[in-house]
Design goal:
The complex is a heterodimer of chains A (488) and B (532). Chain A has helices spanning 3-23, 28-53, 78-105, 110-128, 133-151, 157-189, 208-219, 231-234, 240-267, 269-275, 279-297, 302-322, 326-357, 373-387, 394-408, 411-437, 453-484; strands at 61-67, 70-74. With 488 residues, chain A is mainly alpha-helical. Chain A has a domain at 278-488. Chain B has a domain at 309-523. By secondary structure, chain B is mainly alpha-helical. Classes of the chains: A mainly alpha (488), B mainly alpha (532).
Chain lengths: 488, 532
């Protein structure tokens, strides 16, 4: 098949699933199997693209001209392909888990739920393969809208409040700042194509460079840079599969992915380094890393704690871009992958605990480890990966970021990264400790056990992925090297 | 001096070419008369419908006339997209004495908007007015609809200032009665129609006084001719006064912010089909007239340098964008919310005018179109709600998203376009406005434009929350809207997406129109004006 056809299919398949779901409202098994099939097919298509291009960048493929000079176009490029592979691969796992969770929990509106889910995946695919900022922006907004209904899914007052914060922050930042940045870029340079080495050199100068970078950095609200991070904990009212895939992988990674794209292909790493425009962003990211970790420590609700942990971890990737070195970008890119597997494990384990016990507060977890060994073991592995201990995936990306900070001589940043790891230990491992070493509270029934293989299987699987990725990290970095080696 | 001479020669040459082309076309028969037929057919269909009096024949006649106008407008537009103009002399009397119809990209585009909306709304209106207006009035309703349509098309087509006033009054008078027909559902339509009549007539009177002043000092009513003579009399106080009267008069018709008071009531209490038609066309045509006078008759130089109109229009536009959006947020009636949103959106159009650049003006003109289809979609959705739920108050439509999923989904698309989400028509115009602001280096203006669309997020969200996230009421008619309404609604909704993803045609046409307007009258082919 043509590359263009394959690229189109990665969006068309989830889109078809989104259309099919409401049509098969009553046939639960058929509907969920078809969606699973779609997930597998999407992943296979992304793999086929990998096989065909071998990770080489392709020329832009124009789909539609919106206005003269503004095209909807797609292109294959290592970072995007990696993101598409992660999102579609984890979609398979999350879909299986989601079916188990939604059924095990007796949630309502399955067809609507999985339709919006599939639509969100289609948007992520479009975003990952976007060949220019305009296309990326289009799918970025589509992703916000399709996930919004997932956040509001339960329809309770709390869900509506969370959904309002979610939509308000993401729409507000993207229309209020991101759009202005995009139009500014277009007005200044006359193009929005992602170009190795950036397009802004010579068009935007002096103190305007950090201002434009600020419009992008805050406008990309999905990257959850402080002070625009509140939507992320608010979105945790959504059913756990949504939190797992969308708010640990797809949505937030779409944010930092966009951030990396902006840094690499719009500004250009060298341009950022020369102008020093990203120095302030580096400090802000460092602040976000520490502050979010401190807030996470104070959360008793498990999903909220994980949400703040995500805020902190996302800032690692922004930091990698803001360091403006090849190594930093590489570390940031790798962290997209390693954090994805680690965080999805944590979220799915949290959901598994919820389905089995309907407990959400960490203070109620005393002694649950014996009843739910798989869930808590998976949680433990995920936590270690997030902390960055070998032999788990998270250690490599953190290692690269520390190297990058050392390269640029930012010793304080190294300190920040170290401190953050310590804080991670404090707020993640304490949960596991509670579950395994404390005695169960008196009201805990003896009969509790794991909820079922559809629910505990997926986190166990992704925990395994954390280990595998540790040994295969070299392959991923080799794959990503072209994005970091762009010469102006 | 030599540049001037060359310009004149060019204009003369172009005029000769246009005249020759026009003569050649006239020889071909019907096609040559399209500039006048586009207006005349619906105009004459109105009395025809009344004289025949048969209720069964009324709708086909109305629809056929609207369809003809659309076809004619499209054919005219395709003829002028290259950048030249068609001049048509009524009865063969040469301007400036005779009445001239002059079609260029700007007004052909407006005529396409008006007639396309009419064609889309008429099938929809059948079910809607059957429920809202007693059957004995249907013939009159359609006749008035035709008159309003013909008036709006005439305003766009004509190149004669007084003729423009006549058509403006034809459409306005018909509209007052159409709005008053909402009284069968809600008696408040009568008082709003009356206040609309008062304010509309005030506006028209101001306008005609302005025309009178211009005629006094120039001795002509032909717009192209006026433009030439006004350019030669920069210091004429009478012309200044005329200018002021015309701007204020049209400001009323446009619903420029402090002059907008007639609009919310009229849109709210009119029959649903009329609200949809009015919201999509009437103010758009008024904006066109404003453009025509600011740019063609007075010329950009006069308007923006001598009169410094930028600093008059700009604050009013910003006021509309923010104040009206704020008011829209606090409405409890869906129609009224959309009415205030319209005032805010008119603010965008005025903003594009005030910025005085090719890009921003294209934004204004393309927004005429994009906002027309967006608002038509939304008002048509509300009409379907009114039919099933019996009212447009938020409390009437709580949870209606589950009862009428198709109608509501179209409403969501319209709402997204109103916000300006990428992939919808509203985004295209907003993009051009922001780009226009940044090209001028007015970054604060760019921020204000996007800030005001954030207010749109709030009021659209309130509508969506009401329709989807509340429990449906028990007494609501639990049925989807009839297909005759759903199909036009979805044609409109899909066209907001289509023109958001593939805007080459609309942006291209708007760009041509903006270019013609920005260059003022001097470079347009002028026929018959050489005597002065």
């Amino acid at each position: 098949m043509e590359l263009a056809t394959l690229t189109g299919l990665t969006m068309a398949i989830p889109l078809a699933a989104a259309v099919a779901n409401p049509l098969l409202r009553r046939q639960h098994n058929l509907r969920d199997s078809l969606t699973l099939l779609a997930a597998v097919a999407t992943f296979a298509t992304a793999l086929a693209i990998l096989g065909r291009t071998g990770g080489e960048s392709s020329a832009p493929m124009r789909a539609l001209t919106v206005m003269p000079g503004l095209d909807i176009a797609f292109a294959i490029e290592p970072l995007g392909l990696m993101f598409a592979l992660i999102a579609s691969g984890l979609w398979i796992v999350t879909h299986i888990y989601g079916v188990g969770y939604m059924r095990g929990n007796g949630e309502k509106g399955h067809a609507r739920f999985f339709a919006a889910f599939s639509l969100a995946i289609a948007s992520v695919m479009g975003l990952a393969f976007a060949a220019n900022m305009f296309t990326l922006f289009l799918f970025y907004e589509l992703l916000t809208l399709s996930t919004f209904s997932l956040v509001a899914h339960k329809g309770t007052a709390e869900a509506l409040k969370g959904a309002k914060t979610y939509l308000g922050t993401l729409m507000g930042t993207s229309i209020g700042l991101f759009l202005v940045a995009v139009v500014w870029t277009y007005t200044a340079t006359g193009t929005l194509d992602f170009t190795p080495g950036g397009i802004l050199r010579g068009h935007v100068t002096g103190s305007l460079v950090p201002v434009l970078l600020g419009l992008y950095a805050f406008g990309i609200g999905k990257a959850a840079l402080m002070p625009f991070h509140r939507w992320l904990p608010a979105a945790m009212v959504a059913p756990t599969p949504v939190s797992a895939l969308l708010h640990a992988v797809a949505v937030v990674k779409a944010g930092v992915f966009t951030m990396l794209k902006v840094g690499i292909y719009i500004f250009g790493i060298d341009f950022l380094a020369e102008t020093g425009a990203s120095t302030w962003l580096m400090w802000l990211a460092a602040w976000t890393i520490i502050a979010a970790s401190v807030i996470a420590m104070q959360q008793d609700n498990l999903k909220r704690r994980l949400a703040y942990s995500t805020v902190s971890q996302l800032a690692y990737i922004t930091l990698g871009m803001a360091l403006a070195t090849s190594m930093g970008v590489l570390g940031g890119g790798l962290h997209i992958a390693t954090h994805a597997v680690g965080k999805i494990t944590l979220f799915m384990a949290a959901g598994s605990i919820y389905v089995a016990t309907h407990r959400t507060e960490i203070s109620q977890f005393d002694g649950l480890g014996r009843a739910l060994p798989v869930s808590f073991a998976a949680f433990f592995v995920g936590a270690l990966s997030i902390i960055g201990l070998p032999p788990l995936a998270g250690s490599w990306s953190k290692w690269l970021l520390i190297l990058a900070a050392a390269d640029t001589g930012e010793w304080i940043i190294i300190g920040v990264l170290m401190l953050s790891s310590l804080l991670n230990v404090a707020y993640l491992l304490s949960i596991v400790g509670r579950a395994f070493f404390l005695l169960p509270a008196e009201d805990t029934p003896q009969a509790w056990s794991e909820a079922g293989p559809l629910v505990w299987g997926p986190p166990a699987f992704t925990a395994l992925l954390c280990v595998v990725l540790f040994f295969q990290a070299g392959a991923v970095t080799d794959f990503l090297v072209p994005i970091a080696e762009v010469a102006p | 001096m030599s540049g001037q001479a060359a310009g004149d020669a060019l204009a003369g040459h172009a005029a000769g070419a246009a005249e020759a082309a026009a003569a050649a076309e006239r020889a071909l028969g019907l096609a040559g008369h399209l500039p006048v037929l586009v207006v005349l057919v619906p105009f004459l269909a109105a009395p025809l419908a009344v004289l025949l009096g048969a209720r069964r024949l009324t709708w086909p006649i109305t629809f056929a006339a609207a369809l003809f106008s659309l076809a004619a407008a499209l054919s005219l537009l395709s003829g002028v997209l290259g950048g030249d103009a068609i001049s048509y002399h009524i009865g063969g009397w040469a301007p400036p004495l005779g009445i001239e119809y002059r079609i260029d990209a700007a007004n052909a585009f407006v005529m396409v908007i008006v007639s396309a909306i009419a064609v889309a709304i008429l099938p929809y209106a059948r079910a809607s007015i059957a429920a809202e207006i007693p059957a004995r009035q249907h013939v009159l309703f359609h006749a008035l609809f035709l008159l309003a349509l013909a008036g709006l098309l005439g305003v766009a087509a004509t190149g004669d200032a007084f003729n423009l006033f006549v058509f403006l009054e034809i459409s306005s008078l018909a509209t007052y009665v159409l709005v008053a027909m909402g009284a069968y559902r809600d008696k408040r339509a009568l008082t709003t129609a009356f206040s609309y009549l008062l304010m509309g007539t005030t506006g028209a009177t101001f306008f005609v006084i302005g025309i009178g002043f211009l005629y006094m000092s120039t001795g002509t009513l032909n717009m192209a001719d006026l433009a030439q003579i006004i350019a030669q009399q920069p210091g004429n106080r009478t012309i200044h006064a005329g200018f002021a009267f015309i701007i204020v008069g049209m400001g009323l018709k446009v619903a420029m912010y402090p002059l907008h008071l007639w609009l919310p009531g009229a849109y709210t209490y009119a029959p649903s089909a009329v609200s949809a038609f009015l919201a999509a066309t009437a103010t758009k045509v008024a904006v066109y007239v404003l453009l025509r006078f600011l740019f063609t008759v007075f010329g950009p130089q006069y308007t923006f340098e001598a009169a410094e109109l930028t600093w008059v229009i700009l604050p009013l536009a910003l006021l509309a964008m923010f104040a009206a959006s704020f008011i829209a947020i606090f409405q409890v009636n869906f129609k009224k919310m959309l009415a205030y949103s319209s005032i805010a959106q008119i603010g965008y159009m005025l903003l594009g005018i005030a910025m005085l650049s090719q890009t921003a003006l294209s934004g204004t003109i393309v927004h005429l179109f994009n906002h027309a289809i967006t608002k038509a979609t939304l008002f048509m959705v509300i009409g379907a709600y009114v039919l099933r739920a019996g009212g447009a108050f938020y409390r009437d439509i709580e949870g209606i998203g589950r009862v009428m999923p198709w109608t509501s989904a179209a409403g969501v698309i319209g709402g997204l376009s109103l916000i300006g989400v990428p992939g919808t028509a509203g985004f295209v115009s907003k993009w051009l406005l922001v780009q226009g602001a940044l090209e001028k280096g007015w970054w604060w203006m760019a921020l204000l434009v996007v800030a005001s669309s954030l207010l749109a997020v709030v009021y659209v969200w309130k509508g969506i929350e009401t329709a989807y996230l509340r429990a449906p009421r028990d007494d609501v008619d639990r049925r989807e809207a009839p297909l005759t309404m759903l199909v036009p609604i979805w044609i409109m909704a899909l066209s907001t997406i289509w023109f958001g993803l593939s805007a080459e045609w609309t942006v291209g046409a708007a760009g041509t129109a903006a270019e013609a307007l920005m260059s003022g009258a001097s470079e347009l082919p002028i026929s018959g004006g050489a005597g002065h």
